[in-house]
Amino acid sequence: MTVYGTKIKSDLSFSLDFSQESETEYEIALSSGVPETLKKASLCNNVIYSSHGRSVYLHSDRLIDGSSKIGQPWCFEVKEVVRFYWYGGDRTIYYELDDKGDVDLLNFWFVHQFLPVYMSLENMYYFVHAGAVEVEGKSILFIAPSMGGKSTLTDYFIRQGHPLVSDDKVPIYTEEGRWMAVGSHPYHRPFRTYEVLGYRAENSVQASSPVHAFYLLEKTGAEEDIAIKEIRGLKKINQLLSQCPYALGSNRSRYMKYVTSMPDGLGVFSIKIPQNINRLGEVYEAIIRHHKRVQ
To answer: 92-97 and 26-31 as β-strands: parallel, antiparallel, unpaired?
Structure first.
């Protein structure tokens, strides 16, 4: 299967269809054979957070500063469900199910949460928390606070025939001075249900595409005008950094350098979106018109 521009070889059968043909940047192995040396490593320093109603832990044997070192042992644990182990710099990941885990839950956590953490720690990609679609061969990214409408707008664009780039986390890398967006996987979730990836979009990107613009979604009154305005300067940088979920510790400095050196012409725009589902078509048309003007 291919997710986040990465070919995954595994001894595990995945319950969802990730068989889309797409270009790959990396190759990773996923195995159940956890080495005893990893299990016995002193994985005590941890970062704890909550996601999808679960307690999630990130363990290592040293201070977790946001970047992986060669040979550093790691464990990503979803309490009572699954643990993923790896050594820094290694492209083999090991899994171990816990009492409340099963293959479907392992699939979800591996694709939706673990891989972006792993790839960020291993400096493979920069990740932006955004919905993203392709318009005329270029990626546009929708950023917003939680429950801000990213998935709803992404779904609307998909239904108008635009290829899906990502529903939630967009991997980005640089190529010849451009920011390139990588397709995450072909599933999207225009609803709020824990531990599911949602519906499969039959039209998803097969190759990386240049990032054209970021649109910050700002909700407004149901009858208010739709307005698009460019965000500049420090506010622009802060808005992008606030949407980088793995910009922690030493990674924050890396992300800061990345964001402050973004290519000329790559804009961040706020868009006022009426809280009226019946006006999504107007929002769509406004973004398409704006996209054409800023090319």
So the answer is: parallel
